[in-house]
Predict the 3D structure of the following.
Amino acid sequence: MTDFKRILLVEDDARDLELTLVALGEYKLANEVDVVRDGLEALDYLNRRGAYKLRGGMNPGVVLLDLKMPRVDGLEVLKFIRSEEALKMIPVVMLTSSREERDIIESYKLGVNAYVVKPVDFHQFLEAIKQIGVFWALVNEPPPPTYVEKG
Amino acid sequence: MRPGRFSLSDLSIKHRLPLLIGILLLATILGSTWASYRATKQAAIAVGRERLLNLTQQLASLLQQSASALGAKTLTAANTPEVRSLFQSKSPETEAKVKNVFLPFNTANDPNALQIELWRVDGSLALIIPESSHPEAVDLSLEFKQASVDPNKSIGEIRITEGGALYPIVVATKDESGKVIGYLVRWRRITAPDARGQLAQLLGSDAGLFIGNAKGEVWTDLVKVVPKPSVVLGAKMETVQYQRDGESVLALGRPINGTPWFFMVEFPDHAFLQPARRLLRSMVLIGLTFLIVGVLGAFFLSKSITRPLQSLTNAAVAISGGDYSREVDLTQKDELGTLANAFNTMGAQIREDQAELERKIRERSILFGAAPCAMLMIDQQGLVSLSNTQATTLFGYSANELLGRGVDELFPDRYRNPEAGRGSFLAAKETLARDNGELYALNKDGSEVPVEIGLNTLQTPEGEFILASLVDITTRKQAAEEIARLNEDLEQRVVERTEQLVAVNKELESFSYSVSHDLRAPLRHLAGFAALLHKEISVEPDETRRRYVRTIVDSASRMGDLIDGLLGFSRLGRAEMQKRPVQLQRMVTDTVDELAHENGHKTVKWTIGFLPDVSADPTLLRLVLTNLLSNAVKFSRDRELPEIRIESTIAEGEVIVSVKDNGAGFDMNYADKLFGVFHRLHRSDEFDGTGIGLANVRRIVQRHGGRTWAEGEVGRGATFYFTLPLSPERVSV
C-alpha cells in the first residue's frame, strides 16, 4: 500500500465529511485525500483555477462525489469531468444519501464508475468507505496521467 | 257484341225463350199446314180429274149420239125418191117435193140450221134451200169422197166463216143400184147463243167446254172462236193443267167418235180446290191461335223462370256496383234457390272480407298516421303520394299541399342533384339518401330542420315507391352538441387536472427525494457520531451509558429502515409496470424454496394447490408473494407444526389466491388496518418488521387491478387473499 493515488472528496456537509474522513482514517487513507466543499470548488480544483491555480501533481486517482450540493451539484461536476478531454478518464464514484432511481440512472448515463448510497448504520458506513478507498486508491489501476487523447 | 250483327245472345233470356218457341211453333204449323194443304189439293185434283173423266165421257157419248142421229136423219132424207128424182131430172115439182122432204131441216125447225145444198156428182149445184142463200165457198171434195165411201161418216170439219163457226153434214145420194148420184150438204151453226148456258147446266158454272177439229186448228167455246189451247191434246185420256187468262185450269180432251171433232172440258183450279183452300184457311187460323197461345205461354213461363234470375242479376249488378248488403230473396228449393243461397253466402263472405279489409286498412292508416316519425311515400316521378300528420308538422304543408309535391321542394337546394332531372325518381332517392341518412328538411316557412332519414323501397302493383321516414333530430342534435361541448370541457378539465396531478406528483417526488436525501443525512450523522461515542466510552465500566448510546445507534438504524421502507412504498406507486403472462405456480414454488432456505431452522408444512397463469409484472408479483409468504412464516413460527397453504380459485375472469397459515392470527376488528402503511397489530418485540409489507402488497395488487383482504382469528391463524386478472394469452383452467 505504498503507491496511493490521491482521492478527491467533494462533500458540502461537514459532519458527513468528518465521518467519511474518520472512515478513511480507519484504513490509513486520510492523508491521501484532497477535500473540496462544493461542486464549484471541485471544478476549480480540477481545472486548477482560483484557489487551486497553483495545484501541482497529477489528476486524482478517484473522485468521491456528493450528489446534492449548493451552487454546482454532483451531476454537473460529473458532466463537466466527462466532457473535458483532460479529465474524462478520471474514475468518479457517487457517494450520496439518495437511493432515487432517477439519480442513479442519471449518474450512470453521465458515465459514473460507481454509485454508493451512504448507509445510515455507522458500521455499514465504515465498511462501505473502506471498500471504496481500498478499491479505487489501491486496487484499481487509473489511466496513465500523461495520456492525452489525440485529436 | 259487335254492333250491326244480330245474335241470339244479345237478347235477354226472357225474350229468347218465347222467340225460340214461336219460331218452332211457326215452323211446325207451317210444315203441317203446307203438307195437309198439299195432300188435300192433290185429293181435290184427283177428284176433279175423275169428274172430268166422267163428264167428258158422258159428253162424248151424248155428242156422238147427237151427231150420228143427225147423220142418220140426213142420210135418210138424202135417199128419198124425191131427192133421187131431183138429181135425175130436176123439175119444179121435184123441187117442191124435195123442199117438203127437207122441211124438218128448216131454220124454223132447227135453230142451228143454216142452208141445205144439193150437189150433183159433176160438181154443179142442184138445189139450194132457201134459194136466196149462196153456197158456202168451201172445198167439200174430201167430205164428198168420204160420204160416198162411208155413209156413217157424215159430219164434216168445223169451218170458221163470217157467220161464225159452221160445220157441214155431208151425205151421198145413191140410186137404186147404189151409184152415187149426188150429195146433200147441210150447214149447221155450232155456236148458238144459248148453247153455252145449256152446257153450263150440265157441267157446272165454272166449267168451260171447247170444241174443235181433231186436227186442232179451229176451236170454239160455242159462242165465239177462241185461240188454240197451249197444250197438246192427244187421244190419251190425261188431264192437263195450264194457264188460261192468267188462271190455272185443269182440262181433259176427248175425240167425238164418228166425227172429225175433238172436245175439251176445262175446270179452273179454284173450282175444285175450294175445299182445300177452306181447309188451309181454317188450319192457318188454328195455327195462328196455337202460335199466339204458345208464344204467350212461353213468355210467361220464361218470365217465371227468369224472374229469380233477374233478381239474382240485379243483386249481382248491385254488388258489382259496391252495394254488398244486397240479398237475394228466393225461397224456392230448386237449382235457382241453391244458387241464391250460394249467392247470399258469397255476399255475406264478401261483406265480412270487406269489413276485415277495411279494418286492416284502418289499422294501417292509423299506424301510418300515428307513427312517431314523419312518413312520406314517394312515387317514381319523385312526387309525394302519401304523407302522415307528422310529415305535415315537419314540413309545414297541409296534407293536400304535400300530395303531388316534388320531393326536391322539401329539401334545401344544396341537396339537389344537378345531373338528375327535376322530379325524377332518382333525384328523390339521391336527395334523401344524402349524408348517410342525416340531412335538413326544408319547412314551408323556409326554415331548415335537421332530420334523420330512413329509406325503404316498396314494391306495389302500382310500381315502385320509396317510403321515407324522417325524425326531427333538433333536440338530439342540440343534446349531441351539448355533449360534445361538455366533453370538450371535460377534456379541458382533465388536461388541467392531469397537469395539476403531474405537478403534485413532481412535488411528491421532490418531497420523497428530500426525505431520501435530507432526512437520511442527519440520521446517518446521529448514528455515526453515536457509534463513535460508543467506541470512545467502550472502556468505561458504566454499562448504563453504553446501553444508552447503543440504543441511540439502534434507533437511528431502525429509523433508516423505516425511511427506506417508506421510500420503497412510494417508488412502488410510481414504478412502471410491465405486465406479461406469469406462471404463478412456478413463482410460488420458487419463493417457498427461497424462504425455506432462509428459515432453514424451522420446518414448515407447505401445501401448494393449483395456481393458474396470470398477467402481471413479475418483479412486483414476486414482491407480493415474498411479503405474504414471509409474513405467514413469521407469524406461525411459534407453532409446533407451522402449516402454510397456498391455493387459488377462479371466478369471473380473475383468480383469487389465498395464503393461509395456522399462526398467531389477528383480531378481525382490525382487519382494515392490516394493509395500512406502518400499521402493525403486534408489538415489534413479538414480531419484527417495519409495517410496510402489506401496504406494498395492497398497492401492487391494486395497480394490477386486483383486490386484497384478510380473514383471521387471534391464535387460530390468518388467511390473506388477493386477486389478479387471468392471463389473456394463456388461460389455464
